[in-house]
Probable 6-oxopurine nucleoside phosphorylase (Caldanaerobacter subterraneus subsp. pacificus DSM 12653), 260 residues
Amino acid sequence: MEKAIIGGTGVYDVADKVVQKKVETKYGTVEVDVVTVEGEDIVFLARHGKEHGVPPHLVNYRANIMALKQLGVKYIYATAAVGSLNENYPPGSVVILKDFIDFTKSRPLTFFEGEDGIVRHVDMSDPYCVNLRGKFIEAAKKEGLTVKGEAVYVCTEGPRFETASEIKAYKMLGADVVGMTNVPEIVLAKELGMCYAAVGIITNWATGLIAASSGPVSLREITSAIEINKEKVIRTFIRVFTEETLDQEHCNCANSVIEL
């Protein structure tokens, strides 16, 4: 099983078969669904748990990514619900992430704890797999999904939303969208030599930006934006996984770790 999708609950009406699995890792137990589509096994992992009961700052990111590695996964697509800091990316838009800024505070961020006496670093010059990003954009055209553009993602600790002053600062730093889950997920995948690409589904304007007069972010606003695009995004992921030949020769994802 070389291919996986991380995000919310999978869209199972595209699958011929669904099998639930529990994977034991040194960081904890992870539940996944393995779906078979056109003879291709694809792993679905619900980032916040099957019942969406784990807040972003408590997600066991290391267990999740290690479980995928133990299953043999090499290629990961992920979804991320995000707020927009970019006037060109209104709610309801879909963007492909190209870089990130990390403002998390208390999460385990790495597998590399020096337990074996070796110091390791990981290259972040191109964190999101260029190969998977390009293939998603091409497949999205075939699926009828509009990708508004590329975006720099700023990750905050959560679970609270950001203040207007924080959003202003992030915007000055070059961020386009804001969320609470992509770090350390992207970093951990890179450490294990996996190709990882993420798609942002924009649910709302970030605090204090443009639509401040419309009031605070509502649950209805978030869920409606996600539902509009989730199925097309997942179907685009599956289109790449079932129609494209994937390799790690057209990216540096498998060779990003530097040992000192």
Observations:
- DSSP finds five helices and eleven strands in the chain.
- The chain has a mean pLDDT of 91.
